[in-house]
Amino acid sequence: MILKNIVRHLKYLIVFLPLILSSCFLFINEANDIQPFRLSGEEIYIAQLKESYKKTQRFNKIFSKIGSKRFKPYYYFINKKFVVVGIYNIQKSRYVIIKNKKGELFKFLFNDTFDNGLNLPSFIVINEIYLDAKKLIGKEVWLNDVNDEYGFHSDFIYNFERFQKVKVIDVIRFQNSDAGYPVWLKIVSKNGHIGLARYNVQGVRFGIKDNYFISNPLKPVWGKDILKNIKNNQTAIGMTENQVRIAIGYPDKINFTSSMHGISEQWIYSHSNKNIYYQFEYGKLIYVLD
Known about the structure:
Blueprint: H1 2-32, E1 43-46, E2 48-49, H2 51-54, E3 63-65, E4 71-72, E5 82-90, E6 93-99, E7 105-109, E8 124-126, H3 127-134, E9 140-143, E10 152-153, E11 165-175, E12 183-188, E13 194-198, E14 212-213, H4 224-231, H5 241-248, E15 253-259, E16 262-271, E17 274-281, E18 284-289
Parallel strand pairs: 2-11
Antiparallel strand pairs: 1-5, 1-8, 3-4, 3-7, 5-6, 6-7, 9-11, 9-14, 10-13, 11-12, 12-13, 15-16, 16-17, 17-18
């Protein structure tokens, strides 16, 4: 009887040993083939997701351990710190490898949509950006488009208006779309109303608008007419580049031309497959072509 049991267990071992060895070899091979890239060494978090946004993708089919095809549920990763190790390529697929504090390695597919500049998907929080946002805690900012659900959120949206001054009281990791930093400023108005404004860096960027301003964007010296246009998201001939940017946001593209008079700029805004051209000379708007 004992001999039969030994023989039976040996049969099982002979059947499953190749699979076990294959899995171990795959793990070792993957771990050795990880290549560093510009985000290697970055600390990251995985953002909490808005319920409606969860339905747009199969978020529970994203993360898996290296050497395994079995997916780990999304909630397992939320609010845990990871370090980006590198990239692993296999069978024309590219994976980002991350490591938790226990040293466990996980991977997620690096889709072509994220290939431009090797940027991470929108639910990945780079800790450096999160810490930069926290520097605004205790400071005042001026809101921009409070009707943009992807840049501002409040349970009572009517309590806020554009260019309203508010105070930053906290920073949270949260995502509700495929674009924009998954980092939000928790703000409070003078009346105690709470809202969230998506964090954004300041400076010239294309195709977007500021979710808030770090200083009062409306200057009384500009005059009532200019201020009225800006508040109504409108432009007028003679407005400066800064005034146009505050009124309608950053352009999708800028063309630079030079002449004997100097360098002029043409700002291009794309709306519903139609381009609108704003021509500037000496920093002021001289005409609009739509």
